Amino acid sequence: MKTLVTGANGHVGFNLCKALLERGYDVRASVRSVDDEARTASLRALGVQDFVSLDVRNLDAFEHACQGVELLFHVAATYAFHTSGPAADGEMVRDSVEGAANAIRAAARTGVNKVVMTSSIVTLPLAGPGDPPATEADWNPDLRVPYIRAKVEGERAAWRVAEELGVRLVTVLPGAIGGPGFQRRTQSTDVIEGIMLGTMRMAAPKLNFPYVDIRDVTEGHVLAAQHDVAGRFYLGNDVLPSFQELTRMMHGIDPRVPAAPRLLPDFALGMVPFFEWLDEKTRGAPRSATPELLRSLRGKRYSASNARANAELGWEPRVPLEQSLAETMEAIRALRRREGRKTLA
For residues 91 and 56, is the Cβ–Cβ distance under 8 A? Predict the structure, then answer.
């Protein structure tokens, strides 16, 4: 089956191409520029032979990329909480909304049988004290964080256009993705790298981390394509570790990684961006939190149920958290070596 994967050189896209090739799919990979060897080399090594350049905001280019395609995985997206400012935030939202709408329009014009789109857990509402886990029927009403706004408005645009044009659409909502197979840093791997560099050596915020392994995520994408289903599917663990638990697991994997000895008082949560700025300057640690993100998370937690994915797709997370963390940590070390950055202990 001829299959197009947008954003094929990203963490999800790369691993999805790998999973599809292993299952015998005929994969066409879209990247921003096929002339950029850095974007295509790893995919060629997998065995991808069909490449296309794609700006997702260009409908004609999207339609060209979809020619002869039966199945479209729309993965391409900007994943960033930290940007260069309001202009970049606006671009991220426009890319998400226009890219999602164009994916559906291009699919309709070229006769694509089904679209599977990568959304995110951030499109689901956070839980307050005593709240039940979110389900796929729920939407996050808090759009103050530009990345969350981009994901919510992008997915809503896809559903709106799909309904108008009669396109079969499934969206999958993974958590923060770890595991091997990434060619560049992501916001999720930055969190793990920061912990490795000691960003929580003094204390961890009273927050949880919606971690899920990339192999479970790609399996969920494939199952969503193979099953005769429609709608939204959360791909993540029902039980999510707190940041303090995460640091302790990582310390257990590698004792050189400091475990957070205490929890950060709620009144100090607003200081996290300053602490991250300081760690960036002194330790080279990546920054993950913004004031808007922390305000949206205060007193809340990620909590969602994967019951629908289990019942309708037969999906469940299979990669143990400790194994995935260990492999993520090793992949971060390998990436730092390739980039010529200081090797982590």
Answer: no
| Pairwise CA distance, residues 322 & 263, whole Å | 22
Report helix, strand or coil for 75. coil
Alpha-carbon distance of 95 to 76, in angstroms, equals 9
pLDDT tens-digit map of 102-116 = 999 999 999 999 999
| Tens digits of residue pLDDT in 62-98 | 999 999 999 999 999 988 787 777 888 899 999 999 9
Separation CA 76–CA 40 (nearest Å)? 15
Alpha-carbon torsion angle 189, 86, 149, 76, nearest 10? -50
> Which of 233, 251, 232, 231 minimizes the C-alpha distance to 241?
251
**What share of the chain has pLDDT > 90, as a percent?**
82
Which region, left, alpha or beta, applies to residue 182 given φ > 0 means left and ψ of -120 to 50 means alpha? beta
| Cα–Cα distances in angstroms (integers) from residue 191 to residues 81, 325, 345, in the given order | 12, 11, 17
Query: Which value, to the nearest 10 degrees, does the dihedral of the CA atoms of residues 125, 57, 190, 298 take?
Result: -20
Q: Does domain 2-178+211-237+302-319 sit in CATH 3.40.50.720?
A: yes
**In this predicted model, what pLDDT tens digit does every residue of 316-332 receive, in sequence order?**
999 999 999 999 999 99
Strand 231-235 to strand 71-74: parallel, antiparallel, or no bridges (unpaired)? unpaired
Q: Which two tokens mark 319?
A: 């990669």
**CA 113, CA 74: separation in Å to the nearest integer?**
13
Q: Which among 103, 142, 306 is positioned nearest to 224, based on CA atoms?
A: 306
- pLDDT confidence of residue 86: 85
Alpha carbons 196 and 202: distance in angstroms, whole number: 13
Which residues are CB-contacts of 226 (< 8 A; sequence separation ≥ 6)? none
